[in-house]
């Protein structure tokens, strides 16, 4: 039996907020120490009631039922109905006000009783009790869902850990793995390799870990996925300060993870991979590794896991004269350390996710801001987007054991299906914009939200209303900051189109020259250029980009490509979840699948495995057909979801459960083996 450690804080606090601000230092729970910290409950009954008033109730009831064993807290009349998402998510899982009142009374009583009884909790509650708590939150067949749900909850043990160790299955074999990239996926891969006792090296082109969260440091940069769901299953953090965390917080989290895991010493910073080639006779990859000083060495590995991401190489628009501008040019993906924008005339090209965050953050400091828009984004109403987590909720997360874990699980479950049904193409649907009945419902909800914000500016409303289906491009979180910015007297929204860029500014298609001091390109990344610019040579001397993909990247499960043995990708083609779930979920699926494949190689004594063509082609046909049934595949508008050939090469069109199922088991029959 493991007992949760609880830190005693003798200082009494006059207000809830003072209690929240006290640092937490003790560890509890499964997985990595340091991410489940609780403190002794020393609030009065009345302050506990105030905290529960600000709680997420479904997750709190499941937590309390588990740590106390009192299943009356999760009785059928309190089960959240969890209605489908539309423009917004039903608060408290759609519980009625009567159910919420009862839930709060029961939760307060349970916390008070827990406080007064010594606050001791078993770290391994009975499986039957966990099942009851899970069944309270989810819908569907528990047995069918069990492996996925146990993985995301990880109460009893780290369910994503490899079930093998090199020392046990191949003690005399030397096996090295290169991990390219130290962002979220690279950190996950390195930790899993370490758990399996496999020798590995991580190569990171930047000076610090974080990947996209290191590169993107522009003003206002933050998540658009709820932050609890955006955390690694083995390093769950219960004390996020905001609902949608800012870049520094995510970056700090990833740095902390590398410290707790002990993998930091295995990361080579300021180091890039120029090329890699596979030696069939030896069953190994040779990597050309370039360090910060430009020195080039060759390193040999048995396998490679790529974790370079798809949002890492900035993309500039193809505009004549783009290199002639004499003022300052900034790309959102390479924001300078401290640019001086105060009092400057600034142009911002683009109205996507980064622009949506940059614009409101810099508008008040510049003398004039002109936003150049090609296609306006669809916006999801998120009034609390910039809000801190409420003090009472923060206190509960710090003081109720496992609450952060159950809250993350609850956020994950809500996102399993998410708004995916709202993107479905209805056969025979005849509408100039939307692709189906549910998609039209989503469109009408978004239109109503926008109309409320621009009721005093019909001219702006006309400009910011998209003429393509919702979800055909990335939908953005909106709390009104964008509309507020556009209404400022020194801010213009230009939709006439850019003809060319000159030495002094931007020449638009209506014949007007606009002078600027600074041009900010919020124009995204080369998302479809997977693994670029690394030159990758596989079997028979075939180069991956030139001879295999030729601008149309595909992979089996988004992980492997025929002809490139022992090359495992994370964040590969068609694995981006864009309307449900988070990138961390798919990355963990890919890492864990890769570990199963490596484990099979080691257990059978094979040198390498190579994906067969038939399963590769069948899988990609299934994915392509799925994407054509989604708004982003059917719509004609351009987006980073599609490659230069117009195919949706980035997006995953099916449910999270589908991806979990196809990656949960390694199937040797899908591969040829090199002995």
Explain how this protein is built.
This protein has 675 residues and is an alpha/beta fold. The protein folds into 3 domains: 16-159 and 389-417, no CATH class; 173-313 and 527-674, FAD/NAD(P)-binding domain (3-Layer(bba) Sandwich); 328-378 and 457-521, FAD/NAD(P)-binding domain (3-Layer(bba) Sandwich), CATH 3.50.50. The protein is built from 21 helices and 21 strands. The strands form 6 sheets. The chain has a 5-stranded parallel beta sheet, with helices on one face. It has a 5-stranded parallel beta sheet with strand order 8-17-9-10-13, with no helix packed on it. It has a 4-stranded mixed beta sheet with strand order 6-5-4-18, with no helix packed on it. Helix 2 runs antiparallel to helix 4, helix 2 (45-53) crosses helix 12 (391-399) and helix 3 runs parallel beside helix 4. The longest helix has 22 residues, at 583-604. It starts with 15 loop residues before the first helix and ends with a strand.
């Amino acid at each position: 039996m493991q007992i949760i450690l609880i830190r005693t804080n003798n200082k009494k606090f006059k207000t809830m907020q003072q209690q929240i601000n006290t640092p937490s230092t003790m560890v509890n729970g499964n997985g990595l120490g340091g991410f489940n910290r609780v403190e002794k409950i020393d609030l009065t009954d009345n302050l506990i009631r105030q905290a529960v008033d600000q709680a997420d109730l479904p997750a709190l009831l499941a937590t309390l039922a588990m740590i106390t064993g009192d299943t009356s807290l999760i009785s059928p009349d309190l089960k959240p109905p969890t209605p489908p998402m539309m423009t917004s998510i039903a608060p408290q899982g759609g519980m009625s006000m009567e159910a919420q009142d009862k839930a709060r009374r029961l939760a307060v009583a349970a916390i008070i009783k827990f406080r007064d009884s010594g606050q001791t909790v078993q770290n391994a509650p009975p499986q039957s009790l966990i099942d009851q708590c899970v069944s309270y939150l989810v819908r569907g067949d528990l047995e069918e869902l069990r492996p996925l749900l146990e993985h995301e909850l990880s109460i009893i043990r780290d369910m994503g850990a490899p079930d093998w160790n090199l020392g046990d299955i191949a003690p005399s074999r030397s096996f090295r793995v290169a991990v390219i990239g130290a962002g979220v996926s690279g950190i996950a891969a390195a930790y899993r390799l370490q758990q399996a006792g496999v020798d590995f090296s991580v190569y990171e082109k930047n000076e610090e870990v974080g990947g996209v969260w290191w590169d993107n440091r522009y003003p206002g940069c933050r998540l658009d996925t709820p932050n609890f769901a955006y955390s690694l299953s083995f390093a769950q953090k219960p004390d996020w300060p905001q609902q949608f965390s800012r870049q520094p917080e995510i970056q700090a989290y990833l740095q902390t993870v590398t410290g707790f895991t002990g993998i930091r010493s295995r990361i080579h910073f300021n180091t890039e991979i120029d090329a890699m080639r596979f030696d069939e006779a030896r069953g190994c990859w040779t990597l050309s590794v370039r360090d910060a000083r430009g020195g080039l060495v060759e390193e040999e590995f048995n396998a490679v896991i790529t974790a370079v991401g798809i949002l890492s190489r900035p993309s500039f628009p193809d505009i004549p004269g783009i290199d002639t501008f004499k003022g300052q040019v900034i790309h959102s993906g390479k924001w300078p350390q401290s640019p001086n924008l105060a009092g400057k005339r600034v142009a911002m090209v683009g109205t996507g996710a980064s622009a949506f965050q940059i614009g409101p953050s810099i508008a008040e400091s510049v003398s004039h801001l002109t936003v150049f828009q090609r296609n306006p984004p669809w916006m999801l109403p998120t009034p609390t987007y910039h809000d801190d987590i409420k003090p009472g909720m923060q206190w509960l997360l710090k003081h109720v054991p496992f609450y952060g874990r159950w809250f993350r699980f609850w956020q994950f479950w809500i996102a399993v299906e998410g708004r995916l049904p709202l993107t479905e193409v209805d056969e025979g649907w005849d509408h100039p914009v939307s692709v189906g009945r549910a998609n039209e419902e989503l469109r009408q909800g978004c239109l109503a939200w926008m109309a409320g914000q621009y009721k005093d500016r019909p001219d702006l409303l006309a400009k910011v209303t998209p003429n393509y289906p919702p979800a055909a491009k990335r939908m953005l979180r909106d709390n009104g900051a964008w509309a507020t910015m556009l209404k400022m007297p020194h801010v213009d929204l230009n939709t006439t189109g850019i003809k060319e860029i000159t030495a002094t500014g931007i020449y638009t298609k209506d014949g007007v020259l606009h002078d600027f001091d600074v041009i900010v390109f919020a124009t995204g990344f080369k998302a479809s250029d997977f693994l670029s610019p690394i030159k990758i040579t596989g079997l028979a001397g075939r180069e991956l980009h030139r001879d295999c993909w030729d601008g149309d990247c595909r992979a089996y499960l988004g992980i492997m490509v025929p002809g490139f043995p022992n090359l495992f990708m994370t964040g590969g083609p068609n694995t981006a979840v864009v309307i449900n779930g988070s990138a961390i979920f798919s990355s963990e699926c890919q890492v864990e699948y890769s570990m199963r494949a490596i484990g099979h190689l080691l257990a059978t004594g094979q040198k390498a495995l190579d994906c067969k063509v038939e399963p590769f082609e069948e899988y990609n046909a299934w994915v392509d057909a799925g994407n054509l049934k989604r708004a982003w595949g059917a719509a004609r508008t351009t987006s980073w979801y599609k490659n230069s050939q117009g195919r949706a090469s980035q997006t995953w069109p099916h449910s999270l459960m589908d991806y979990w199922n196809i990656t949960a088991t390694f199937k040797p029959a899908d591969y040829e083996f090199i002995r």
